[in-house]
Amino acid sequence: MKPICHGVAVFFASCALLVGGCRKSPGEGPAARSDHEEGGNEGVAFKEGRGLRFTPEIVKALELKTGEAEERPLAGELRLMAQVFRTVPNVLASVSLSPADAALLQTQTFPGATLVRVDRGGEAANGRVDAVFALERAPTHVVGDFVTLALNAVPRTVLTVPRSALLDSAAGSFVYVVNGEFYLRAAIKVGARSADFVEITDGLYAGDLVVTSPVEQLWLAELRLTKGGGHSH
């Protein structure tokens, strides 16, 4: 991110760790307003249940952009890089992916590959699951090889947001919703993804205004204020 001012640059630079923050359940409206507010001395503040608030100067310096959640035809695109781990008696390859992408796998087919199982043993620890595929036998397959698997689903009209609005974390998927003068992090459930858009299956309504850039900086600001910031009332 380009320099904004000394105080704000130091503020964002100090946000080094992405750990869980406060969130709402999918489909739930904004929480009740709280009178407690954190931060505010650097033009950035956070209020429980309402979200982040920036001065107009900070909004301009961040080049903050927004867009609407809207329905559009979406053909999910998924490309996986699977690694071969067995060749006898059949060729098996595995890939680590998000739970949302794993759910998409179970409703579609891949040319030249068959989904064998989805292992969710590590989901609680790191938010990822492992998918195992049986590949069509080829004489060139050896253990350790990487194989690209591509899926292109039939287009469906679904509720979408720009892919840049999506915040994926170990705690789940989120977007920042414009909430008056605040930016509130909202939990969502996602479905199909394309290069530019992602399907929202729960957590938003058509017409909701979300931040499309810079989402990660808002996440870091929230962490800084809720995990290590000062307090104001």
Architecture overview:
This protein has 233 residues and is an alpha+beta fold. It folds into 2 domains: 6-72 and 156-232, Beta Barrel (conserved putative lor/sdh protein from methanococcus maripaludis s2 fold); 78-152. It contains 5 helices and 17 strands. A 6-stranded antiparallel beta sheet has the order 5-11-15-14-13-12. The protein is elongated, with a radius of gyration of 21 Å. The model is unreliable at 1-34 and 229-233 (pLDDT under 50).
Topology:
Layout: H1 6-13, E1 37-39, E2 44-47, E3 51-54, H2 56-62, E4 65-68, E5 70-74, E6 77-86, E7 91-97, H3 99-105, E8 113-119, H4 123-126, E9 129-135, E10 146-152, E11 156-162, E12 167-169, E13 172-179, E14 182-193, E15 197-202, E16 209-213, H5 215-227, E17 231-232
Antiparallel strand pairs: 1-2, 1-17, 2-3, 4-16, 5-11, 6-7, 6-10, 7-9, 8-9, 11-15, 12-13, 13-14, 14-15
Instruction: Please identify, by name, the CATH architecture of the largest domain.
Output: Beta Barrel
Query: What is the averaged pLDDT score?
Result: 80
Beta fraction of the residues?
Answer: 35-45%
Domains (count): 2
Instruction: Label the overall shape.
Output: elongated
What is the gyration radius calculated from CA atoms?
A: 21 Å
The major beta sheet can be summarized as: 6 strands, antiparallel
Provide the structure class: alpha+beta
How many beta strands in the DSSP annotation? 17
